[in-house]
Every structure is written in C-alpha cells, then in structure tokens.
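During the second half of the funding period, the structural biology subgroup turned its attention to how the target accommodates small molecules. The most pressing case was arginine, which had performed well in the primary screen but for which no bound structure existed. We therefore specified the complex as follows and requested a full 3D prediction, including the ligand pose.
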Amino acid sequence: MTGRKDTKLWGGRFDRPPDERFDAFQRSFAFDRRLLPYELAVNRAWSRALEKVGVLTAAEVKQVHAALERIAQRIQSDPAWVETSDAEDLHHFSEKALVEALGPLGWKVHTGRSRNELIATDFRLFVIDAAAETQKAVVALAKALVEKAEAKLGVPMAGMTHMQRAQPILLSHFLLAHVEAFARDVTRLRAAAAGADACPMGSGALAGCAFPVDRMAIARELGFSRITANSLDAVSDRDFALDYLFALAGIATHLSRLAEDFVLFASQEFGYAILPDEYSTGSSLMPQKKNPDAWELIRGKTGRITAALFGLLTTLKGLPSSYQRDLQEDKETLFAAHDQANGMVRVAAGAAAAMEFNAERLRAAASDPALLATEAADWLVRRGVPFRQAHDVIGQVLREAERQGKQWTRLTLDELKKISPVFERDFLEGPSVESALAACSIPGGTSLESVRAAISQWKARLEQLGASA
Ligand code: ARG
C-alpha cells in the first residue's frame, strides 16, 4: 500500500509495459465482463471467509459488502462505466472498483486467492444459470409441440422410413417423437448443471490456499452444493463447459432435424405444412415464394453450436495439468453458443406453435394402400401363415396389382386366391388407415389411445420440468 498508483493486478516484477498489440490480444474484459455479477458474489463470500481467518475485521467486511452492493448497482445504472473501462479482465475491473471505493482495503480482498480459481468459479456459476435458462426455453418448445399434438389429434399421416412411405401414423405421434428428443436434452442440461455444481474457491492458483478459509461455507453462500476435491484439477477443469456445450449441441441437432422435417413438409411436393407468415420470408425475385426461413436458419445455425463444442475440445486437448492461459478461450464461444441456442429454441417454439397442417393432404398420403401392406401381412399371420411367407405372399399381391396397374386393394378374391388359398373375403374389407393405426395400441405406439395417453403424460411431465428449471 506504499503509494501504488497502477491498479493493474500484476507488474511489480516487470521493467517494461506490454507490447500494445499483445496487450489488446490478451485482454478479456470485452467478453468476460458478462461474468461480473458472479465475480461480485464471489467477492462477497470470499471477504466473509477472510474475516473468519482474521485477515479482515467485521467492520471491513461490512464496508466491502456495502461497496460491492454499490458497484453492482452502478453496473446496472451506468453501462458506460463498464463499456469504457480500460480493465484488463473482470477481476481487474472489480478490484479497481473496490479500490476506488475503499482505498487499500480493496486490495485486501484478493488475499489468498488467484484469478485462476476465480474464473473457474464465475464460469461454473454462469453455466449453472445458463443451463436453467436453456431448460426453460426447451420445455416451452416441448410444450408448444405437445399442444400442437393435442390440437391435431386424430389426423393421420404417411409415416416414412428412408424417406419412403412406410406405415400410417398419427401426426401427433410424429410431433411427440420430437418432444422425446427435447426431453432428453433437458436431462443433459441438468447433468451439465450438476457437473458445474462444485466450488473451486480455495484452490488458489493451483496448490490450495494457505489461509484456512471455510471452503464449504463459501460454496454454500454462492449456491454450490459441494466443493471441488483437487486444487490442481479445479483450476483447469472445464468438463462442465464441455458438458453444457454437448447439451447445446444435442438441442441444436434435434432442432435441425425438426427443421428439416418442417422444411420438407412445407414444400409443394409434400404440401403437409402451411407456413405461417410470421415465420417466413418472400423472394425478392419470385412473387409466389414463401420460404421456411425460420426453420432453415435454425438448421443452419446448428453448425456454430457443434463448432463451439469441437472448439473447446480442441483447446483442451494436450493442455498440461493446472491452469494455462489457453483456458481463457473457453468463454466467448460458450457464451455465443448459449445465446444462439436459446434464440434457436425460442424461434422454433414460436414457429412450431404457428405451424398449420393440411389435414387432407396428410390423410390422402396416409390412405395410400401400399402403406397397409404390413397390416395385410399381419392378417395372414393371424391365420397361421409364418410371417416370412406372409411377407412374401403380400409382396406377390403388390406385384400383381402393379402389373395390372391398380391398387392391391382392388384385386378380386379370385385373383388373390391364385396367389394364396388362405385369402378370404374379409381380407379385402379389413385393412384401412384407421385399422392400421388402431392395431398399434401398445404403449409407445401410434394408436389414438396410445397417443392420447402420451399427450397427457407429457403435459404432466413438462409441468414438472418447467417448475424445476
Ligand atoms: N482471463 C483468464 C481466463 O479467462 C483468467 C485469469 C487468468 N489468470 C492468469 N493468471 N493470467 O481464464
């Protein structure tokens, strides 16, 4: 405290200032200032811990807390203060602000701690909040899809595999399939938050802290449920960030698949979906165009999210133990991925809610008799024909119908009996879209009853998931 003018966090052992270009290159305040609220919370908890070990008096802690409160308020009310600051990073900013407010007492707050553990702590707190925010958005999207599924209950469509018509399903069943995927994303988000939930404070730069601070008390004050176990690991572990990015990459991947379905369904070739004006744009050249831009952009932005995961994996690969400055590269891409993913999820929720469907087109596609071939084979199985033979017999039926240039359901009983004597009149009365749907009445199947049950289960579960975010 001997007349120190430069409030930089380091520099005592340096003769010359850093090269200008390098200095700009190494600064992180432009992006890590997003973590300021967490840094201030850590300062609050740390100063209390310093009191318990006799570094600060109770009166000093009071002053520090009051100053932190004022700093937090000024950050809110005076954005230019932050924007025009020449701070190197957020730790520098908060220390400078404390020293401005309190004089040398401000410097005491950094006793026994390192920026290495601070940044890890701030970043963990960010990821915990970020995962909760994303969870809320994903649950809202899932709710929009469940509501659509409920509103469209009963509309059949042609279920496809390999993009070839396969069997009739309910449109609601299709929508709920996407809900399943988003629910798995919620599970992953929660796992990422649980992984981040360990407080590094007390790890020091790498070796731990020579002041016997109560680590568990600090952790609890910050909202963590546990402390990290190894100081060396704690300052360099970014697995929680990887987990969060993996969860975001999962969401983006699922969104891009939903987007692809809707882009196809909105094409004139399918004509299943009707694009809402609010989520579409036109062409500058072709007056007739209405394009599914919301879904295309969602699909397109997936690349950035996946890239953020790969980017951090690549940064971490080959790092020696303990803190390395490379780790500063973890934040910008994660912040950007978080913002992008949340934007994607929110737009998807709005666009899905506004999406309308052409029930007639969907039903017409589902009514293609070819889709009833599996049900026809099952009819034979129920009369004792081994499935492989039944499959073969129906294959011959389809071939004969194709040869005659008509639907197989239009073949006569005589024609059918030539292929297999097992056929009876009721075979030709049997198969229909409705009977095919009703046949899949087991849990998880596409019958009206199964899907109705799934909708009500989802409504209850999403209520819970929304409340727990
Ligand atoms: N800005 C750094 C980061 O984001 C934290 C401080 C770095 N610590 C250091 N000793 N230079 O990781």
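Two results from this model are relevant to the next phase. The first strand starts at residue 156 and ends at 161. The mean pLDDT is 95.
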